[in-house]
Amino acid sequence: MPAITVEDVLVLPRLPRLDPMTDFRPVRRLTTAPQGFEGEGFPVRRAFAGVPLTELDPFIHLDQMGEVDYAPGEPKGTPWHPHRGFETVTYMIDGIMDHQDSLGGGGSISNSDTQWMTAGAGILHIEAPPEHLVMSGGLFHGLQLWVNLPKRAKMLDPKYQDIRGKQSALLTTPDGGALIRVIAGEIAGHVGPGSTYTPINLAHVTMQPGSRLDLPWQPDFNALVYALSGEGWVGTDLRPITLGQLATYGPGDAIRVEAKTELDLFIMGGQPIREPIAHYGPFVMNTRDELKQAFEDFQKGRLGTVPATRLPHTD
């Protein structure tokens, strides 16, 4: 199913018209995501490749999964694997993904649903398409974002949030040219359902051809715009952006994007944590010693055990 939408965006709340003297953020960097494979072999674009962590903070990693139209028998997922020290945010646009973790959390997500897993002190989980989708094939498209946890929260008990697409705050631009889905944080007074340990904003935006998005943005947050599909321009100097490209913005009070074709965007920003990062594989800690401890704890079974049965699929 496609991402959640509305028949008439004009019934939605609208962004305020910004003052002509607004300090729009300049585009600092524009990068193109390399393509690769994850898990059991599903295609991804590594959206943050080539971008310094200082410009991403508090984010660590972003994969665009698909968009791919699988033939019967082709859909793939990941095997069971561990995490510690951060949060995984999996957002589905098309298709279905089942999730299960070693603490009994999980379920199915589709149609703008989000699985928000706080790994904290450690957890095992698996992500895979349901059996009926493996048999039938079909369209698969989503995102997985890794959000760092501050040192004070890295060893908290793991937590799971099941966020339905219909819970997202929906709003539009003054002329109705864009649909904005607020997943977490606050945009122009509209609050998303995701609960976070570090202040962040996450939004999925669909823009109509020829439309403009002037998005007010907290000045103490960083600002990142990733193009999921389509073509357009970013910044007041109208730098071209297309599928698989990430724009990082400099300081200011608002983000500008213009659409050439229908343009789908994932917009992120947050208050930088500004702590040391030791990252290797599925663990994101502050020091190398903490990384070594994470691997030791995983090898000794301290991050959980794989449940004997898989959660039943639910729509």
UniProtKB/TrEMBL annotation:
Domain Pirin N-terminal span(s) in chain numbering: 43-147
Molecular function GO terms recorded: metal ion binding
Cofactor comment text: Binds 1 Fe cation per subunit.
Gene3D superfamilies in the cross-refs: Jelly Rolls
Superkingdom in the source lineage: Bacteria
InterPro entries on file: Pirin (IPR012093), Pirin_C_dom (IPR008778), Pirin_N_dom (IPR003829), RmlC-like_jellyroll (IPR014710), RmlC_Cupin_sf (IPR011051)
Membrane-traversing stretches: none
Annotated organism of origin: Actinoplanes lutulentus
Alphabetically ordered keywords of this record: Iron, Metal-binding
Assigned protein family: Belongs to the pirin family.
This protein's name: Pirin
Stored Pfam families: Pirin, Pirin_C
Cofactor dependency: Fe cation
Residue ranges constituting the Pirin C-terminal domain according to the UniProt record: 203-303
Family annotation (PANTHER family): PIRIN, PIRIN-RELATED
Amino acids binding Fe cation: H81, H83, H125, E127
